[in-house]
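stage 2 :: seqdesign
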Protein backbone atom coordinates (compact mmCIF):
# COMPACT_ATOMS: atom_id res chain seq x y z
CA UNK A 1 0.00 0.00 0.00
CA UNK A 2 1.43 3.38 -1.01
CA UNK A 3 1.94 6.20 1.47
CA UNK A 4 -0.64 9.03 1.44
CA UNK A 5 0.39 11.86 -0.90
CA UNK A 6 -0.67 15.51 -0.87
CA UNK A 7 0.52 16.04 -4.47
CA UNK A 8 -2.88 16.32 -6.15
CA UNK A 9 -4.44 18.16 -3.22
CA UNK A 10 -1.82 20.84 -3.92
CA UNK A 11 -2.19 20.78 -7.71
CA UNK A 12 -5.96 21.18 -7.52
CA UNK A 13 -5.39 24.46 -5.67
CA UNK A 14 -4.07 25.98 -8.89
CA UNK A 15 -7.66 27.10 -9.48
CA UNK A 16 -7.44 29.29 -6.35
CA UNK A 17 -4.48 31.33 -7.61
CA UNK A 18 -5.53 34.32 -9.68
CA UNK A 19 -3.29 35.71 -12.41
CA UNK A 20 -2.75 39.40 -13.24
CA UNK A 21 -3.18 40.41 -9.57
CA UNK A 22 -2.05 44.03 -10.06
CA UNK A 23 -4.44 44.70 -12.95
CA UNK A 24 -8.19 45.18 -13.24
CA UNK A 25 -9.75 42.19 -14.99
CA UNK A 26 -13.13 41.88 -16.68
CA UNK A 27 -12.69 38.12 -16.43
CA UNK A 28 -10.57 36.76 -13.58
CA UNK A 29 -8.14 34.12 -14.83
CA UNK A 30 -6.69 31.45 -12.54
CA UNK A 31 -3.54 29.38 -12.91
CA UNK A 32 -5.42 26.13 -13.60
CA UNK A 33 -7.32 27.49 -16.60
CA UNK A 34 -4.22 29.31 -17.84
CA UNK A 35 -2.21 26.06 -17.71
CA UNK A 36 -4.94 24.26 -19.66
CA UNK A 37 -4.91 26.98 -22.33
CA UNK A 38 -1.10 26.99 -22.55
CA UNK A 39 -1.18 23.19 -22.98
CA UNK A 40 -3.64 23.48 -25.90
CA UNK A 41 -1.60 26.22 -27.58
CA UNK A 42 1.75 24.45 -27.01
CA UNK A 43 0.28 21.28 -28.51
CA UNK A 44 -0.91 23.24 -31.56
CA UNK A 45 2.47 24.97 -31.99
CA UNK A 46 4.19 21.58 -32.07
CA UNK A 47 1.61 20.24 -34.54
CA UNK A 48 2.09 23.28 -36.79
CA UNK A 49 5.84 22.77 -36.54
CA UNK A 50 5.59 19.11 -37.53
CA UNK A 51 3.02 19.51 -40.30
CA UNK A 52 4.28 22.69 -41.95
CA UNK A 53 7.86 23.40 -40.94
CA UNK A 54 9.59 20.00 -40.49
CA UNK A 55 9.57 20.39 -36.72
CA UNK A 56 10.47 17.49 -34.45
CA UNK A 57 8.95 18.52 -31.10
CA UNK A 58 6.43 16.00 -29.76
CA UNK A 59 3.00 17.69 -29.32
CA UNK A 60 1.93 15.40 -26.47
CA UNK A 61 5.18 16.00 -24.59
CA UNK A 62 4.94 19.81 -24.76
CA UNK A 63 1.24 19.70 -23.85
CA UNK A 64 2.15 17.77 -20.70
CA UNK A 65 5.00 20.18 -19.90
CA UNK A 66 2.64 23.12 -20.34
CA UNK A 67 0.07 21.59 -17.97
CA UNK A 68 2.70 21.57 -15.23
CA UNK A 69 4.71 24.68 -16.18
CA UNK A 70 3.19 26.83 -13.41
CA UNK A 71 2.52 24.03 -10.90
CA UNK A 72 5.09 25.42 -8.45
CA UNK A 73 2.83 28.45 -7.96
CA UNK A 74 0.69 26.40 -5.56
CA UNK A 75 3.65 26.92 -3.22
CA UNK A 76 5.04 30.30 -4.35
CA UNK A 77 1.86 32.02 -5.50
CA UNK A 78 1.81 34.03 -8.74
CA UNK A 79 4.36 36.81 -8.50
CA UNK A 80 3.36 39.63 -10.90
CA UNK A 81 5.68 40.05 -13.89
CA UNK A 82 6.67 43.67 -13.01
CA UNK A 83 7.84 42.41 -9.60
CA UNK A 84 9.45 39.19 -10.87
CA UNK A 85 11.55 41.08 -13.42
CA UNK A 86 11.99 44.34 -11.50
CA UNK A 87 15.74 43.80 -11.66
CA UNK A 88 18.08 40.91 -12.61
CA UNK A 89 18.80 39.98 -9.00
CA UNK A 90 15.11 39.51 -8.15
CA UNK A 91 14.64 37.42 -11.33
CA UNK A 92 17.58 35.15 -10.40
CA UNK A 93 16.41 34.73 -6.81
CA UNK A 94 12.84 33.99 -7.89
CA UNK A 95 14.12 31.27 -10.25
CA UNK A 96 15.82 29.68 -7.23
CA UNK A 97 12.56 29.84 -5.26
CA UNK A 98 10.69 28.25 -8.17
CA UNK A 99 13.25 25.42 -8.35
CA UNK A 100 12.86 24.72 -4.61
CA UNK A 101 9.06 24.69 -4.99
CA UNK A 102 9.30 22.29 -7.94
CA UNK A 103 11.49 19.93 -5.89
CA UNK A 104 9.03 20.17 -2.99
CA UNK A 105 6.12 19.19 -5.25
CA UNK A 106 8.12 16.28 -6.67
CA UNK A 107 8.95 15.06 -3.17
CA UNK A 108 5.22 14.81 -2.39
CA UNK A 109 4.84 11.97 -4.88
CA UNK A 110 5.34 8.33 -3.89
CA UNK A 111 9.00 7.45 -4.66
CA UNK A 112 7.96 4.90 -7.29
CA UNK A 113 6.26 7.68 -9.36
CA UNK A 114 8.84 10.43 -9.04
CA UNK A 115 11.01 9.39 -11.99
CA UNK A 116 8.04 9.80 -14.35
CA UNK A 117 7.08 13.26 -13.06
CA UNK A 118 10.56 14.67 -12.54
CA UNK A 119 11.01 15.77 -16.20
CA UNK A 120 7.52 17.35 -16.10
CA UNK A 121 7.85 19.23 -12.81
CA UNK A 122 11.48 20.34 -12.89
CA UNK A 123 11.75 23.10 -15.48
CA UNK A 124 15.56 22.83 -15.42
CA UNK A 125 15.17 19.44 -17.14
CA UNK A 126 13.19 20.71 -20.15
CA UNK A 127 15.27 20.70 -23.31
CA UNK A 128 15.76 24.16 -24.81
CA UNK A 129 13.45 23.67 -27.81
CA UNK A 130 10.60 22.39 -25.60
CA UNK A 131 11.15 25.15 -23.05
CA UNK A 132 11.05 27.81 -25.77
CA UNK A 133 7.84 26.39 -27.28
CA UNK A 134 6.08 26.29 -23.90
CA UNK A 135 7.25 29.87 -23.22
CA UNK A 136 5.91 30.93 -26.64
CA UNK A 137 2.55 29.33 -25.81
CA UNK A 138 2.60 31.10 -22.43
CA UNK A 139 3.20 34.46 -24.15
CA UNK A 140 0.54 33.73 -26.76
CA UNK A 141 -2.04 32.99 -24.06
CA UNK A 142 -1.15 36.21 -22.24
CA UNK A 143 -1.51 38.09 -25.54
CA UNK A 144 -4.92 36.51 -26.24
CA UNK A 145 -6.02 37.40 -22.70
CA UNK A 146 -5.01 41.02 -23.37
CA UNK A 147 -7.03 41.06 -26.62
CA UNK A 148 -10.08 39.69 -24.79
CA UNK A 149 -9.81 42.25 -22.00
CA UNK A 150 -9.39 45.19 -24.40
CA UNK A 151 -12.29 43.93 -26.53
CA UNK A 152 -14.41 43.93 -23.36
CA UNK A 153 -13.56 47.61 -22.83
CA UNK A 154 -10.75 47.16 -20.30
CA UNK A 155 -7.87 49.39 -21.42
CA UNK A 156 -5.75 48.29 -18.45
CA UNK A 157 -4.24 45.68 -20.81
CA UNK A 158 -3.29 48.07 -23.64
CA UNK A 159 0.41 48.35 -22.79
CA UNK A 160 0.65 44.65 -21.90
CA UNK A 161 -0.80 43.79 -25.33
CA UNK A 162 1.71 46.05 -27.06
CA UNK A 163 4.61 44.57 -25.09
CA UNK A 164 3.50 40.98 -25.75
CA UNK A 165 2.93 41.69 -29.45
CA UNK A 166 6.49 42.95 -29.77
CA UNK A 167 7.81 39.95 -27.85
CA UNK A 168 5.90 37.49 -30.04
CA UNK A 169 7.02 39.15 -33.26
CA UNK A 170 10.62 38.61 -32.14
CA UNK A 171 10.17 34.81 -32.05
CA UNK A 172 11.97 33.34 -35.07
CA UNK A 173 9.92 30.13 -34.88
CA UNK A 174 7.55 30.14 -37.89
CA UNK A 175 4.89 28.21 -35.96
CA UNK A 176 4.47 31.18 -33.58
CA UNK A 177 3.89 33.56 -36.48
CA UNK A 178 1.55 31.05 -38.15
CA UNK A 179 -0.50 30.76 -34.96
CA UNK A 180 -0.73 34.55 -34.60
CA UNK A 181 -1.81 35.03 -38.21
CA UNK A 182 -4.29 32.15 -38.20
CA UNK A 183 -5.92 32.23 -34.77
CA UNK A 184 -5.35 35.49 -32.89
CA UNK A 185 -7.68 37.87 -34.74
CA UNK A 186 -10.78 35.89 -33.72
CA UNK A 187 -10.25 36.84 -30.07
CA UNK A 188 -11.36 40.42 -30.73
CA UNK A 189 -14.69 39.26 -32.21
CA UNK A 190 -18.04 38.61 -30.55
CA UNK A 191 -19.67 35.18 -30.24
CA UNK A 192 -22.05 36.05 -33.09
CA UNK A 193 -19.12 37.03 -35.30
CA UNK A 194 -17.13 33.84 -34.69
CA UNK A 195 -20.29 31.76 -35.19
CA UNK A 196 -20.97 33.01 -38.73
CA UNK A 197 -20.56 30.45 -41.51
CA UNK A 198 -18.84 32.98 -43.73
CA UNK A 199 -15.69 34.85 -42.65
CA UNK A 200 -16.12 38.63 -42.18
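stage 2 :: out
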Amino acid sequence: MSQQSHFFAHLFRMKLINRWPLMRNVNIENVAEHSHQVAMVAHMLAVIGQQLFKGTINPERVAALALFHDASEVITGDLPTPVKYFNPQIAVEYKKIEAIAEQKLLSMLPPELQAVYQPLLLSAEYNEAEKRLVKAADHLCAYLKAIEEISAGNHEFTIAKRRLEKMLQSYPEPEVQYFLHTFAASFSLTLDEISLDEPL
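stage 3 :: structure notes
- The mean pLDDT is 92.
- The CA atoms of residues 43 and 59 lie 5 Å apart.
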